[in-house]
Amino acid sequence: AGQGIPLGVVSNKQGPFLRAEVAHLGWGERFGALLGAGDAARDKPDAAPVIKALATVGREAGPNVWFVGDALVDMDCARAAGCTGILLVHDGTSLDEGVLTRADLRVVDCRHLHDLVTSAMGLT
């Protein structure tokens, strides 16, 4: 977690597959929580995996928690947990089903997300 920001992943990929993928990429130490399908009482879009991931890193849900995703299920999960939903819009993002109206913020790429985080933290 850079700049003291705890990071976690909440995915609908099966938990063991998610953790194997993160380990293969060498990213394991970047995340304080890695939760996939089946790791919480319910999966996204329910708030349960977010609440469990946040508990793992010693945090509680709220608007200061940013949930970044690229799908409607992610924005619904963020909303269910009471977190700020940030939609990462890219070529594969489906913009139907009202996903834009459910997002609190939108970013066009990871550089844009980085700039948003550094600005919010007063690091610019």
Characteristic terms for this protein:
single chain; 124 residues; alpha/beta; Rossmann fold; three-stranded parallel β-sheet; two-stranded parallel ribbon; 5 helices
Please describe what this structure looks like.
This protein is of the alpha/beta class and 124 residues long. It has a single domain, classed as HAD superfamily/HAD-like (Rossmann fold). Helices cover 36% and strands 19% of the residues. The protein contains five helices and five strands, in the order βαβαβαβαβα. It has a three-stranded parallel beta sheet with strand order 3-4-5, sandwiched between helices. Helix 1 links the parallel strand 1 and strand 2. The longest helix has 11 residues. The model has no long low-confidence stretch (mean pLDDT 91).
Number of helices: 5
How widely separated are the two ends? 18 Å
Order of helices and strands: EHEHEHEHEH
* Uncertain segments: none
Q: Largest beta sheet: what is the strand line-up?
A: 3-4-5
**And the CATH topology?**
Rossmann fold
Q: Kindly provide the radius of gyration, computed on alpha-carbon positions and rounded to a whole number of angstroms.
A: 14 Å
Mean pLDDT: 91
According to DSSP, the number of beta strands is 5
Instruction: Write out the CATH superfamily name.
Output: HAD superfamily/HAD-like
The portion of residues forming beta strands comes to 15-25%
Structural class: alpha/beta
The CATH first-level class comes to Alpha Beta
- The CATH architecture is 3-Layer(aba) Sandwich
Proportion of residues in helical segments: 25-40%
Number of domains: 1
Q: How can the largest sheet be summarized?
A: 3 strands, parallel
Shape, principal axes of CA atoms: globular
Protein name: phosphoglycolate phosphatase
Pathway: Organic acid metabolism; glycolate biosynthesis; glycolate from 2-phosphoglycolate: step 1/1
Family: Belongs to the HAD-like hydrolase superfamily. CbbY/CbbZ/Gph/YieH family.
Pfam family, one: HAD_2
